[in-house]
Amino acid sequence: MGFLKRIFGKGNEQSEKNVEKEIGQIQSGEINKIYPILKPGDWIGIKAGCLKQTLLGTKEEPQLVVGFGYDAPTNFIFLTQGDLKGKKPEEILNEAYKNLEDFPSEFEISETEHGKFLTASGKDFSSEKILCKSHMLKAHELLKSNELLVSIPRRRCMMVISKTNDKEAYNTFVYLHNHAWEDDSYGNAPILNALFVVIDGEIDGIIPLGQK
Question: What distance in Å separates the CA atoms of residue 203 and residue 129, rounded to the nearest whole number?
Answer without folding.
Answer: 12
